[in-house]
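Q: Focus on the chain.
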Amino acid sequence: MTHIPDLNSLGKLKVEIPFNLLAFIISVSFLLILSHFLIKSETWRDSFTFSAAVLSAAGTVIGAYYAYQSIKQALKISAANAKQGLLTKEEKIIDRTIHYIHLWNDPQYAALREAMRKICDVIRAEPPETQDKFVFDYFESHPHEEQQVITVFNFLTEIAIYIEAGYINEELAWQFYDTIIKEYCEYFAAFISQRRNRGGNNKNKYQVLLDLHKKWHTLQRM
């Protein structure tokens, strides 16, 4: 089972000095002071000076150990925070993907879905060799429905941009949008091409969506 760090403890340092280490440092310090007093000391002043030096060295050792443990624990906390951040980022990606899947089924898109279904049914009824011309003629007399198609392609392009940027989970998006993107990009290929050939920045219009369609189509054939 994956260990999940306690979020309340993240960012807090708690360093404890082991009793054995502390006892060892105190014992060594005491023996050094006692040895100096019994063997080398000539005056109490010498013993006091030497004792102060020993205790200072002991404090330095304890301080160094404390600093080492603090850094070590800080690195562990940093790693835990980083891991938690990655999990949060992945969860946000999944949530965003689910949002865009639900959005297509949202009632506010009902009119667009119905318009696309109606137009695709009409196009499907035409012979393949006349379908492109039919689309252009149909939009000439149905400008409102042309605008609805443009809105749908703008929406699908937005999804493709997010997938390319890693803001949406491609696997989940593919499971839902693959058939939709495939059908629309094929039925309206000539219409898309016409809009891209208008010059200026239009040549890059829907490019990310077309690249995604090509990628998914290639994956299906492999």
Remarks:
- Residues 1-16 have pLDDT under 50 and may be disordered.
